[in-house]
Amino acid sequence: MRRLPATLAAGCATALVLALATPASAAFGTLTLTLLSGQEAELENPARGCHSIDPSVKAVNNTTAPVFLYWDRDCNGPPQLANVGQTTIAQGTPWVSVYVYR
Questions:
Q1: HSE (side-chain half, CA atoms, 13 Å) at 17
Q2: pLDDT digit string, tens, across residues 16-62
Q3: In DSSP terms, which residues pair with 33 in a beta bridge?
Q4: Given CB 3.0 to 4.6 Å as the disulfide criterion, which of 27, 28, 53, 61 pairs with 82?
Q5: What is the DSSP string of the chain?
């Protein structure tokens, strides 16, 4: 019977270490952007924060975090939300920066 508490404690400790090992500063997956030229660009596992991008008119968010798309540099101005798993089309002006929420 003494083995059960020790085994449970070891299992809990392992689970805690694995949970803490996952970085919270990146979104996992790919954000695919369709550029004005029609070509596609990808941000793979984008870090949290603001990223400058080439002018883009479509975003497919296949990451684990919502992203905000901006028509101004440095993530200024009103954002357009692209939730996880969502495809978003620019309304008029192309986006030039993106903020990864996670």
A1: 6
A2: 333 334 445 789 999 999 999 999 999 999 999 999 999 999 999 99
A3: 41, 59
A4: 61
A5: -THHHHHHHHHHHHHHHHHHHS-SSB--EEEEEEETTS-EEEEESPBSEEEEEEEEEEEEEEESS-EEEESSGGG-S-EEEE-TT-EEE--SSPEEEEEE--
| Cβ–Cβ under 8 Å, residues 81 and 98 | no
* Tokens (6 digits) for 37: 């030229």
pTM: 0.74
Q: What are phi and psi of 28, to 5 degrees?
A: -90, 135
Residue with tokens 């508490």: 5
Question: Residues near 46 by Cβ (< 8 Å), separated by ≥ 6?
Answer: 26, 27, 31, 63, 67, 98, 100
In angstroms, how far is CA 67 from the centroid of its own chain? Answer: 6
φ, ψ dihedrals at 74, nearest 5°: 60, 30
